[in-house]
Amino acid sequence: MLFGSNLKIILMVAGLAVPLVTTTAVPGENRHIAAFKDQPALIELAPGSVRYRVAGDFTRGGKPAEAPLATIRIKRPLAIMMHQVSSADYQRCVAENACRALPPDIRVVADRPAVMVSWRDANAYAAWLSRKTGEVYRLPTDEEWAYAAGSRYQDDRLPVDSNDPSRGWLARYEREASLNSAEVDSKPRPFGAFGANENGLLDVAGNVWEWTNTCFVRTALDESGNALSSTANCGVRVVEGQHRAYVTDFIRDARGGGCAAGIPPSNLGFRLVREPKLLMRWFGL
Amino acid sequence: MLTRRTAIMGAAFAALILATPALAQDLNLSRQKVELVAPPFVHPHEQATKQAPKIIEFRMEIVEKEILIDEQGTKFQAMTFNGSMPGPLMVVHQGDYVELTLVNPETNTMPHNIDFHSATGALGGGALTLINPGEQVVLRWKADRTGTFVYHCAPEGSMIPWHVVSGMHGAVMVLPRDGLKDGTGKVLRYDRIYYIGEHDLYVPRDEKGKYKTYETLAESYADTMETMRKLIPSHVVFNGGVGVLTGKNAMTAKVGETVMIVHSQANRDTRPHLIGGHGDHVWETGKFANRPEVDLETWFIRGGSAGAALYTFKQPGVYAYVNHNLIEAIELGAAAHFKVEGKWNDDLMKQVKPPESIPPKVQGALQPTTKHN
Fold this sequence. Notes:
Number of domains of chain B: 2
Helix content of chain B: 10-25%
Number of strands of chain A: 14
Largest interface: A-B, 36 and 38 residues
Largest sheet of chain A: 6 strands, mixed
Shape of chain B: flat
Number of helices of chain B: 5
Oligomer: heterodimer
CATH superfamily of the largest domain in chain B: Cupredoxins -  blue copper proteins
Strand content of chain B: 25-35%
CATH architecture of the largest domain in chain B: Sandwich
Order of helices and strands of chain A: EEEEEEEEHHEHHEEEEEH
CATH class of the largest domain in chain B: Mainly Beta
CATH topology of the largest domain in chain B: Immunoglobulin-like
Distance between the termini of chain B: 108 Å
Strand order of the largest sheet of chain B: 13-12-15-19-17-18
Distance between the termini of chain A: 24 Å
CATH class of chain A: Alpha Beta
Helix content of chain A: 10-25%
């Protein structure tokens, strides 16, 4: 499946100014689920939709093209962690030999995110937390992340000029250089330091980027925008934050950047979504 | 009667008289004050000059301060010429006299001095410039040869490498009076100039592997010296920190412009490379009396020297300028960026086909193309 399974996508080929105004959900419908024992604090977002710049690379008629803009419908409530997984919570998984240890210079505290974690680490944690709680926790897809991020989700549209590739590179460089990350050092801050978004999620697009489950996909579209073929590289996953980046799944520190000329994510961390109970899913709730 | 002794004395006296015209005050040369600017920028200057040699007056204040050297916020006790790492580039012409007022404010804690590789005698001036906090000194030296040269602090003993790897180096560029030339005598000019100073830093770690921080220079000394002696830098940086010359502070140029890049390293070898570009004319050892090498991919800057490279940008985009030990560039910090605006040139490069799935018939490497009997 090209764009993830339970999400209906309407491809729209249109440019849109940043930032995208996202959800149609009324904020009042969001439900806070307090932390309890091993369960983390969650925010359950009401169903809704999000205008979403599809991740990955696109060609159209054999030429580099802008990624399509889609409307993503989130059909079920989406329960997502209010804050990123803390270094202390991650450390509990390490202590039970289910997660790889954090580098020694990461402070293990309850109020700061676990950083220097790879996609594999995040998945190991999700598996451990699921065992611990009897629930199903997993990384969000990029579409789900965009939905939860709300107004903090940035369209990463770039001008694509197939006659002059440098325009896109320079535009991306300028945009990423103008983001806060240049001024804020990458030291993890206490939860809430970057504020809450309209959904009540803390520190979205702060100085910690978050892993998603979305693979790097390259899609060939025909002239009218229909997908002809795609190649997915699931060794590279989308990370989200102040800007979208594609990072190899075993990388814990993306600060060195992918190719030499770009602004890399300051930190890699994560937050998880909780799947509805199986019974609830059967009833379509 | 002319004794042998007086003959010798007379010869010495004659030599002294001959030497006298070289003394700047007696020549009544005109003076020019130049305000130094922080790298990567360089103070305004003529590339070639018709003016007679002058005394160029510079003033530099030594600043000891704590700085941040990476995005993780690692703190570093730095010693700097004029508050920047590297210290400012001083540009003069051959035959000029550099007259430096070096100031060591009371707020500092260490004695400092300056050794100019471009100067002659007295340990490059080091033996005549040692000043304590609260003192200043004036040194004049003649720019008798052209090129880019390192200057650095060189107080005594172990203080020398420590002061240098704590930030105390910069560079001088002595231009030929008639400007730069290629190997055939053709004049070379630049539209922009940037000065990049590379430092290898040695930040000690605690037993958990975390970078240690110190309240003062003195407290950092013993641990830093131990780390330095292992010769493995914790950071290798351009202009005082990881990412300093990237993002909003990336260097800029336009297609068609010729950029001069002066690159110095006072302590350790480095090998600059412009990713996607070249060195059109490179004075690898920095000395303009030698003909520049052309069309280089990577050039070598010996520790303790400064080199100069000219490049005319031909293609727009984002370029990385790196120490092409790529571990040092990407992992330890020795990378800068150029943003270059202009029109793309398809003739030089074109993506003929964007990435796509490999067509089935050529997929896999084991399909025989010829049959053997």
